[in-house]
Amino acid sequence: MYAGSMSDIQRVPRQPIPDRPLGKARSIGLTIVLTIVTFGIWTFFWSYQTGEDLKKYRGDGLGGVAYAIINFLFSPAVMFLMADEVAKLYEDAGEEPPITAVWGFWFLLPLIGNLIWYIRIQNSLNTFWTMRGAPYAKGV
Predict the structure, then answer these.
(1) What confidence score (pLDDT) does residue 5 get?
(2) What is the residue-averaged pLDDT of the chain?
(3) Secondary structure class of 84 (helix, strand, coil)
(4) In the chain, what are the domain boundaries?
(5) pTM over the 0.85 mark
(6) Of the candidates 9, 11, 18, 132, which lies 20 to 30 Å from 96 by C-alpha distance?
(7) Radius of gyration over alpha carbons of the chain, in Å?
Protein backbone atom coordinates (compact mmCIF):
# COMPACT_ATOMS: atom_id res chain seq x y z
CA MET A 1 0.00 0.00 0.00
CA TYR A 2 1.28 3.47 -0.87
CA ALA A 3 1.84 5.71 2.13
CA GLY A 4 2.79 8.90 0.23
CA SER A 5 0.69 11.98 -0.18
CA MET A 6 -1.79 12.68 -3.00
CA SER A 7 0.57 15.32 -4.42
CA ASP A 8 3.25 12.62 -4.85
CA ILE A 9 0.82 10.55 -6.88
CA GLN A 10 -0.22 13.49 -9.06
CA ARG A 11 3.38 14.24 -10.06
CA VAL A 12 3.76 10.88 -11.80
CA PRO A 13 2.70 11.18 -15.46
CA ARG A 14 0.05 8.66 -16.37
CA GLN A 15 -0.18 6.86 -19.64
CA PRO A 16 -2.95 8.03 -21.98
CA ILE A 17 -5.96 5.76 -22.29
CA PRO A 18 -6.03 4.80 -25.99
CA ASP A 19 -9.79 4.81 -26.45
CA ARG A 20 -10.31 8.22 -24.83
CA PRO A 21 -9.21 11.35 -26.67
CA LEU A 22 -7.32 13.68 -24.38
CA GLY A 23 -8.39 17.28 -24.13
CA LYS A 24 -6.14 20.16 -25.02
CA ALA A 25 -4.13 22.02 -22.40
CA ARG A 26 -4.77 25.67 -23.20
CA SER A 27 -2.74 28.79 -22.48
CA ILE A 28 -4.36 30.63 -19.58
CA GLY A 29 -2.80 33.99 -20.44
CA LEU A 30 -3.65 33.84 -24.13
CA THR A 31 -7.25 32.93 -23.40
CA ILE A 32 -7.56 35.86 -20.99
CA VAL A 33 -6.10 38.23 -23.59
CA LEU A 34 -8.44 36.91 -26.30
CA THR A 35 -11.42 37.32 -23.98
CA ILE A 36 -10.49 40.94 -23.31
CA VAL A 37 -9.69 41.79 -26.95
CA THR A 38 -12.95 40.25 -28.21
CA PHE A 39 -15.02 41.84 -25.42
CA GLY A 40 -15.99 38.43 -24.06
CA ILE A 41 -16.91 36.75 -27.33
CA TRP A 42 -14.01 34.32 -26.97
CA THR A 43 -15.73 32.79 -23.91
CA PHE A 44 -18.29 31.17 -26.21
CA PHE A 45 -15.53 29.42 -28.16
CA TRP A 46 -13.69 28.46 -25.00
CA SER A 47 -16.90 27.05 -23.47
CA TYR A 48 -17.55 25.06 -26.64
CA GLN A 49 -14.00 23.67 -26.88
CA THR A 50 -13.77 22.78 -23.21
CA GLY A 51 -17.24 21.21 -23.15
CA GLU A 52 -16.34 19.07 -26.17
CA ASP A 53 -13.06 17.96 -24.57
CA LEU A 54 -14.86 16.91 -21.40
CA LYS A 55 -17.63 15.05 -23.21
CA LYS A 56 -15.27 13.22 -25.56
CA TYR A 57 -13.04 12.06 -22.72
CA ARG A 58 -15.73 11.16 -20.20
CA GLY A 59 -18.35 9.95 -22.68
CA ASP A 60 -20.84 11.93 -20.62
CA GLY A 61 -21.73 15.54 -20.00
CA LEU A 62 -23.30 18.49 -21.74
CA GLY A 63 -20.87 18.92 -24.62
CA GLY A 64 -19.69 22.01 -26.44
CA VAL A 65 -22.91 23.14 -28.10
CA ALA A 66 -24.84 23.04 -24.83
CA TYR A 67 -22.12 24.99 -23.04
CA ALA A 68 -22.01 27.66 -25.75
CA ILE A 69 -25.81 28.06 -25.61
CA ILE A 70 -25.89 28.15 -21.80
CA ASN A 71 -23.04 30.67 -21.85
CA PHE A 72 -25.09 32.87 -24.17
CA LEU A 73 -28.35 32.58 -22.20
CA PHE A 74 -27.08 32.63 -18.61
CA SER A 75 -23.30 32.57 -18.32
CA PRO A 76 -23.06 32.10 -14.52
CA ALA A 77 -24.60 28.64 -14.94
CA VAL A 78 -21.53 27.57 -16.93
CA MET A 79 -19.38 28.31 -13.89
CA PHE A 80 -21.29 25.77 -11.80
CA LEU A 81 -21.86 23.13 -14.50
CA MET A 82 -18.34 23.07 -15.89
CA ALA A 83 -16.76 23.01 -12.43
CA ASP A 84 -18.96 20.03 -11.62
CA GLU A 85 -17.88 18.21 -14.79
CA VAL A 86 -14.21 18.85 -14.05
CA ALA A 87 -14.74 17.49 -10.53
CA LYS A 88 -16.34 14.36 -12.03
CA LEU A 89 -13.40 14.05 -14.42
CA TYR A 90 -11.04 13.79 -11.47
CA GLU A 91 -13.39 11.57 -9.45
CA ASP A 92 -13.73 9.14 -12.39
CA ALA A 93 -9.94 8.87 -12.36
CA GLY A 94 -9.96 8.15 -8.62
CA GLU A 95 -8.37 11.48 -7.73
CA GLU A 96 -9.35 14.31 -5.43
CA PRO A 97 -10.89 17.11 -7.54
CA PRO A 98 -9.13 20.48 -7.24
CA ILE A 99 -12.38 22.28 -8.12
CA THR A 100 -16.06 21.59 -7.42
CA ALA A 101 -19.39 23.15 -8.38
CA VAL A 102 -19.15 25.41 -5.32
CA TRP A 103 -16.46 27.36 -7.19
CA GLY A 104 -19.28 28.67 -9.39
CA PHE A 105 -20.13 31.16 -6.67
CA TRP A 106 -17.15 33.24 -7.81
CA PHE A 107 -19.57 34.83 -10.30
CA LEU A 108 -20.89 36.86 -7.36
CA LEU A 109 -17.65 38.86 -7.37
CA PRO A 110 -17.75 40.74 -10.71
CA LEU A 111 -14.73 40.47 -13.02
CA ILE A 112 -12.15 39.31 -10.48
CA GLY A 113 -14.36 36.37 -9.50
CA ASN A 114 -14.63 35.28 -13.14
CA LEU A 115 -10.86 35.57 -13.50
CA ILE A 116 -10.18 33.53 -10.35
CA TRP A 117 -12.66 30.85 -11.47
CA TYR A 118 -11.26 30.66 -14.98
CA ILE A 119 -7.64 30.39 -13.86
CA ARG A 120 -8.54 27.67 -11.37
CA ILE A 121 -10.61 25.60 -13.80
CA GLN A 122 -8.19 25.90 -16.72
CA ASN A 123 -5.26 25.04 -14.48
CA SER A 124 -7.17 21.97 -13.22
CA LEU A 125 -7.89 20.89 -16.80
CA ASN A 126 -4.32 21.54 -17.97
CA THR A 127 -2.98 19.46 -15.09
CA PHE A 128 -5.38 16.61 -15.82
CA TRP A 129 -4.63 16.50 -19.55
CA THR A 130 -0.84 16.90 -19.32
CA MET A 131 -0.54 14.27 -16.56
CA ARG A 132 -2.07 11.83 -19.02
CA GLY A 133 0.25 12.66 -21.87
CA ALA A 134 -1.34 15.60 -23.67
CA PRO A 135 1.19 18.19 -24.77
CA TYR A 136 0.94 21.64 -23.24
CA ALA A 137 -0.33 23.94 -25.96
CA LYS A 138 1.15 27.40 -26.35
CA GLY A 139 -1.97 28.56 -28.21
CA VAL A 140 -5.66 28.28 -27.56
Answers:
(1) 46
(2) 86
(3) helix
(4) 26-131
(5) no
(6) 18
(7) 15
